[in-house]
Design a protein that fits this description.
This protein is an alpha+beta fold. The protein is 42% helix and 26% strand. The protein is built from 8 helices and 7 strands. It has helices at residues 12-22, 27-30, 33-42, 72-79, 81-94, 96-107, 131-144, 163-171, and strands spanning 2-6, 48-55, 58-66, 117-124, 153-158, 175-181, 187-193. It has a 7-stranded mixed sheet with strand order 1-2-3-4-5-7-6, with helices on both faces. Strand 4 (117-124), helix 7 (131-144) and strand 5 form a beta-alpha-beta unit. Helix 1 crosses helix 3, helix 3 packs antiparallel against helix 5 and helix 5 (81-94) crosses helix 6.
Length: 195
């Protein structure tokens, strides 16, 4: 039986393991397992959303996001301040330029003052069972169930060499709202969907 449920503290290590397996070359992965544990723990508190997909009691995927992007990363920092402080010291000692990038991202304003709920990370173990689709649908239901500002859902994904993900989001009803360059001139799509 496949179920999607809110994550618990004891799920965090498996979430991090899946993240590292599916996103080995991403910036957050480069910060290491300890940082990712701190990062995902912060989603366990509001306004974060962290869902896990389980089959036969084992975690097969997760989705993380926010109900409202306004000030979200500052709140995420406050949700696990001691953990981020410890991780920050480790990063300062080992990857000081990465720490600068994190601080810049926390302090930046919402993209062109657009407000939305946001899917920040979704990943599953490789499968042919529709885990990703099921997780995305449950994330959307979670947002729809508590969305007083009627915010659309937003997500970003790579522009280049990413046809499978782009098709997945388009098939789920997401539309391209902008193309932009992120850190290090990485070309990205922003998709949005009204729910």
């Amino acid at each position: 039986m496949i179920i999607v449920t809110p994550a618990k503290q004891e799920d965090i290590q498996q979430i991090v393991d899946i993240h590292l397996m599916r996103f080995p070359h991403f910036f957050l992965s480069s910060l290491g397992s300890e940082f990712l544990i701190t990062f995902y723990k912060a989603f366990l508190q509001k306004p974060g959303i962290l869902l896990v997909l389980k089959e036969a009691g084992e975690i097969r995927g997760f989705a993380a996001g926010s109900r409202d992007n306004r000030g979200f990363f500052k709140q995420l920092l406050l949700n696990n301040f001691a953990g981020f402080l410890f991780s920050g010291v480790l990063i300062l000692l080992t990857k000081p330029l990465a720490l600068k990038r994190i601080v810049v991202n926390i302090g930046k304003k919402s993209s062109r003052n657009k407000f939305y709920a946001e899917l920040l990370s979704i990943a599953t173990l490789r499968n042919k069972k529709g885990y990703g689709k099921l997780l995305l649908e449950e994330f959307e239901k979670e947002i729809a169930g508590n969305n007083p500002a009627n915010l659309p859902i937003s997500l970003t994904t790579d522009f280049d060499d990413n046809d499978k993900a782009i098709t997945f989001y388009k098939n789920a009803g997401y539309e391209v709202s902008e193309v932009f360059e992120s850190y290090a001139r990485r070309k990205m799509y922003r998709f949005t969907k009204r729910i």
